[in-house]
Design a protein that fits this description.
Layout: E1 2-6, E2 14-18, H1 44-54, H2 58-79
Antiparallel strand pairs: 1-2
């Protein structure tokens, strides 16, 4: 129903495209809430999707690990 992607627009890190909604409510966080038990939280699913976008792909992590190991082996050969 929603999709996060990196934005090509300057100054905008991510874009969220909402494809389908059931209800639309007009709500905004305010400095002085009307009720004492009012809370504002980031949606957990949305936050997880954003974090996933910041992670490099699995192949990149494997590549970095292999390069690290090769560099380590080269350094150890130089010490011998």
């Amino acid at each position: 129903r929603a999709k996060w992607q990196k934005s090509s627009e300057r100054g905008v890190k991510y874009e969220r495209t909402i494809n389908n909604i059931d209800h639309l409510f007009d709500v905004s966080p305010v400095t002085t809430p009307a009720y004492p038990d009012t809370e504002v939280k980031v949606g957990a699913r949305s936050l997880e999707q954003i974090k996933a976008l910041d992670q490099p792909p699995e192949w990149e992590l494997k590549r970095r690990k292999m390069l690290y190991q090769l560099n380590k082996e080269e350094l150890l050969k130089g010490i011998e």
